Every structure is written in structure tokens, then in C-alpha cells.
Amino acid sequence: MQIVSNKSTTRPTTLRMNKNKLESIYQKHQQILGHQGPIYALSQDAAFYYSASSDKYVARWHKATGQQDTFAVRCTEAPFSILVVEGLNLLVLGLANGHLHLIHTEQRKEIKHLTLHQAAVFALAYNPWTKHFYTADADGLLCIWDQSWTLLLQQPLACGKIRHIEVNTDGSTFFLACADGMVRQIDAVFFNEIQQFQAHSEACTTLSVLPNGQFLSGGKDGYVRRWAANGTKIAAFPAHLGTIYQLKQLDASCYATVSRDKTIKIWQLLDDQIAQRIDMQMASHRHSINALLITNNGFLTAGDDKRIIEWRRS
Description:
single chain; 30 strands
């Protein structure tokens, strides 16, 4: 693991886009170029966006301009997941070999290197109510750490790859999206499993908890499903032609999904009706879209075409 002053193999550029003449909810604002491989994950703090790529770099970008900052991390393996906890000045990296690297973003130095996971770490989360970190890998191993990164629990779930960890809105529980198609809900105090249910016919890949206690799931089957808090299915519909990699609520009225099928879709939160489809005709991504990050003005997407695109509400 090496923290470098800039990414020598990359020449980042920013292309600002004129507002599309078509009336749409979200328009392309800027495109950030610089990575030399597919981008797997995004995170942020108040001033910067962070991105992780198969080129083995984690880069940092100024929010206002899209220009690359001098901070970058050169990894030994591809980083599959990243998490920034702004109040702790902490950047957590989960690598393809299972290693976890903890970077202090102000001091620009590594403060811990953990090797408990033996498979790629796909999911990272922080619970601000309990001050616990959650990490999960491709073998279905869930680990729970305190704020000083002392291990509290390691639990092999034999569920295949855990793609996503979603903390409940009150911090009392958290949910796991698992490769066996199950959603598992875990108590955040005693770490007991509260419930599990079959959410998708294939892998469950992403989850989003809604303010009313319901939650949404997306999967390899391309479906979005809406669930009551007790796991009762409320609705289900085919949303994409490929795996849904991320699903997040944008604001009080809508949520977004991104997929391997190269499209972004905006859905009405009230009735799950599609409000906007964004594809290559709007100069969007040309390959699989892997990451979605909600911002103050809209959202970011990133994918296999090595690009980060910022979308803002029109």
C-alpha cells in the first residue's frame, strides 16, 4: 500500500457538459476522466469524491471542479470497496485479496492494515449510532469491528458473496444483500440474526432502507422488490436487463438504480413508476455501471468505461 502525491499513470481531465435540450429530471453536469481501468466504488466527504478502480488506485477529486487532488493511494490489489467516514478523517479500502487498509485522509498515511478476510471485500459500512464498522467478503464472512478496529465478531454465513451492507435508519439493525438471494437482518447490539427471507431468485446485490421503514432490494435477476419492515413483499417489477449493482434514494420523491445493462433509471418513490431513463443517447456510460453516489445536487455514477459522471437535477 502506497500513498502517492498524484497518480503518475493518469492524466485526469474534466469535461463540462452543456445542459441537454431534452426536458429531463437529471442532466449531465460533468464527466471525470483519469482512471485506467473499470471503476468499482465511490465515496465522499465534504470537499472530495473518492473512486476505486481495477487500475489499483484510489483517487480523490475536487467536488467543485472535478479535477484530481494530489492525494492518491496505490494498492497492491484492486480495491473493490471504499468507505470514507468524514468525522474520523478515515478512508477504508477493501481489496481483492481480502486485505483492509485504513488511511488517515488529513495525515495522508496508513494507520492500520488488517488481513482477517481471505476473500475479496465487497461491502463496507459504518454505523454512527453504535460506532461499529461492518465488513463482508466474497466467501460470506461478516466481520464487526469497534471504532478502534478491534474485532468484535466474525461470522461465516455460508451465503456466498455479500455485496452490500445497509444500516437501518435508526442504527438498531443492519441488512445484508447475499449471493444466495437472501436478505439477512442483523441486530446491531447483540449481533443476532433477526430475520432472513428469499428476496431474489439469483443473487441479491443491493439494498436501500426507506424513511417509512420499508426497504428496496435489487438483484442479479434485474428486479427491484419493495418490502415491509417484517420482510413481507409489497411489490416487484423487472427494472433492468442485467444485474442491478446499486439502488439508492435520491430525495423525498424518487430513487435511482444502475445496472450492468448500461442504463440509469429514476423511479418515483410513491408508486415505483419510472420517471427517467438515462442511457448512451444522453452521453451516459458505454459499459456496465457499477457505482452510484448521492450528492447534494444529484448523484454520481461510475463503471467499466473508466468514467465518473455527475448528474444534477435540472
